[in-house]
Amino acid sequence: xxxxTADSFTNRDTPIPVxxxxxxxxxxxxxxxxxxxxxxxxxxxxxxxxKLKDRLESLGDSFSGKQESPxxxxxxxxxxxxxxxxxxxxxxxxxxxxxxSHTYVERPNFSIPTMSSNFRRFNSRIGxxxxxxxxxxxxxxxxxPAQTISFxxxxxxxxxxxxxxxxxxxxxxxxxxxVPAFLARHPPPPSYLPTDLYPLSGPPIAGARTIRPxxxxxxxxxxxxxxxxxxxxxxxxxxxxxxxxxxPLTNFSNEALSSLIYVLLLCTSCLLFICAHLxxxxxxxxxxxxxxxxLGHPWIQDQLATPENALVFxxxxxxxxxxxxxxxxxxxxxxxxxxxxxxxxxxxxxRALHDVGGEYDPHVFSPSPYAxxxxxxxxxxxxxxxxxxxxxxxxxxxRWSDKKWTLDLLSREWVEERCVTxxxxxxxGERWVTDLWYEMVEEDSLSEKSTKSRKGKLRKREKVKVRxxxxxxxxxxxxxxxxxxxxxxxxxxxxxx
Length: 497
Description:
Number of helices: 14
Oligomer: single chain
Number of strands: 9
Region (Disordered): 1-72
Membrane topology: Multi-pass membrane protein
Shape: elongated
Transmembrane segments: 152-183, 256-276
Pfam families: Pex24p
Protein name: Pex24p-domain-containing protein
C-alpha cells in the first residue's frame, strides 16, 4: 500500500545529471542539509574543481608527451564532459533487467575516441567477411551454375551420410586456405611459355601471401564501409520483417491467438520429444536445402515477383491468419474476471504521555501498524503515511474494486498474526489496539539463597525485586481498515530489441 499523498505521485523521474564546479570553500544553504538518496544521486554526477584540475593536468601531460591534432584534443575534452554528464551503469537501477550491464560482464564504458578507434580497426579487417558474403550470394543466385550444382552434389552427400560433416572443416581448410597459399608461392606457368620453367617441386619464386588490414583512406577501406553500410540495411530489414511476422503472434497482444500458438507449440514439442527419432531427417534436410537453393534461381525469382503471385501470397497469408483467429475464438476461452486482492491501511492516533485524561487525536494513515517493538519505533522514526483518508492510493497497476474502506472487526487476529506485544486489544466497539505504558514497581521478597555461617546456622537475607506493571495507556493507538482492489488490464505494450 502506498504511503504517499496524491501530490507525491507527480514526480517519479531520476535527478537530472549536472556538471558543476564547486570549490572546497564554497558555502551554500544545501551544505547543511542531510544527504537524501536523491541528493546523493544528483551529487554523484557533479565534477568538483579538484577533479577537473586533475583531469586537465593529466590531459596536459599526455599532450606534452606527444603532439596531437586539435580534433583529437577536442575528442578527449568532449569525452571527459560526456562521461560526467551520463550516469554510470553501476549506479543505475533500470526497471528492466539489462543482460549487457556490468553486473554480468565487465566491459569498458562508452567512449567516443574508443568508439572511433575500434570502428576504424574493425572496418579495415572486415573485408574477408564481405568477400565470403559475396561468394555466398553468387553461389545461391546461380551466377555460375557449375558452382551451384557442385554445391548441391556435396550437400547431397552430406545429407545421405551426415558423418561427412566432420570432414567439411578440414576439406575447407585444405582447398580454400592451404592450396591458395601454396599457389601464391608457386604460381602456375603462363600459357605462352614452356611449363618446365615453372616446376611446382622447385623452390618458391614468390613471397608468401599475408593478410594485412586495409590502410585508412584506401579504396579497400571505403569498400568495406560501403559493404558495412549495406549489411546494416539488410540486417534492419530482416529484423523488422521477422518482428512483424512473429511478434504479433507471440507477444499476447491478442491473448486468444497467442494462447493457441502456445498450445500448438507445446503439443508439437511433446510429440517431437516422443517420436522425433522416427522422422526421416536426412530426406527433410535434403528437401529443404534443394528448395532453398532452387528458389534463389533468377527465373524462379522473376516468377515469384510478379504482381499476380504477390497477390496470391498475400491472400494465402490472410487466410492462414483468419484460420488461426477463428480457431482461437472457438477453442480458447480466457478468464475475463480481473484478479482481486485485499489491501490494508492502519489509522494511527496520538496522545501525549503526560495527558492522561486527554483524547487521542488523528495523526496519520500508515501502511504499518507502528507497533511498540517495530524497527521504526525503536529507531525513533515517526510513522509514515498520509493524514487524510482520501489521499490513500491503490498500489501501482491496481484500482479500487470496493467503494469504501471497511473496519477490520477481528483486531485480535491481526495482532496475533504480527506477534504484536505490549498492547491492549478491544474486541468490541471501535477495535482500537492501544499501547500500554509500563512503570517500574519495587517490592520486597525473601531470597531463596542461603549462606552458611561459621556456627553452621542458616540465615535468610531480604532483597528488593523490581518488576514492570502496566499502569495506563500509551501514546499511540491504531486500528486496521481493509479495502478490495483489482488489477488494471493493459491493452498493449512495447519492447526494445
